[in-house]
Amino acid sequence: MAQVPEFPSKLFFFCEVEPGSGGETPIVLSHVVYERMKERHPDFVEKLEEHGLIYTRVLGEEDDPSSPIGRGWKSTFLTNDKSVAAQRAAKLGMTLEWLEDGVKTIMGPIPAIKYDKSRNRKIWFNSMVAAYTGWKDARNDPIKAVKFGDGEPLPSDIIHDCLEILEEESLAIPWQKGDVLLIDNWAVLHARRSFNPPRRILASLCK
């Protein structure tokens, strides 16, 4: 939830149904990603710290299991009423632009780098790589899904370099039925590997 202003500090995951295959949860230390990106692309990181990021997604009315985004606006905002959805979006600092068959959500500018006061260090806290490389479906072009807070496009080569760093530094946690994983959201980023069904991981988010 790095692309919204309010995010949980801790995450509990519980494996109710283990994957047929794949489906691991990779984790990576956020401060290590920041340090490596700062060393390799100092000007880019400086601009990120100055301007933050803007995230844009187009949601259909209903959920779309074939989409990496998945949820439609009704389940995202837990309502069938557009005015209620707009109110709930506004509380998150999100702007909605209604379309014929869905809605465009615009979030930001929002910080891409945060300061972890408990550990006195800066951390990589954004969904830049996930959005740029993965938010692709019939409604969404991932290249347009995320940009600098000043509206400038992100450089593709640096995004993919960051993806390499994430993969190099990550540790993939496999799942078995009954497993519990506690994640410190200030310490690590997490993701989900592709999988063959079935797979059911339950989540509990803690402030």
Number of helical regions: 7
Cα distance spanning the termini: 12 Å
Classification by helices and strands: alpha+beta
Oligomeric state as shown: single chain
What is the beta-strand fraction? 25-35%
Order of strands, widest sheet: 5-6-4-9
Radius of gyration: 17 Å
Helix content: 25-40%
Biggest sheet: strands, sense, closure?
4 strands, antiparallel
Q: Could you give the order of the helices and strands? A: EEEHHEHHEEEEHHEHEEEEE
**DSSP summary, beta strand count:** 14
Mean pLDDT over all positions? 95
Unreliable spans are none
Silhouette = globular
Protein name: TauD/TfdA-like domain-containing protein
Keywords: Oxidoreductase
Pfam families: TauD (PF02668)
Organism: Salix koriyanagi
Task: Report a brief summary of the structure.
This protein has 207 residues and is of the alpha+beta class. Helix content is 29%, strand content 33%. Residues 5-202 form the TauD/TfdA-like domain.
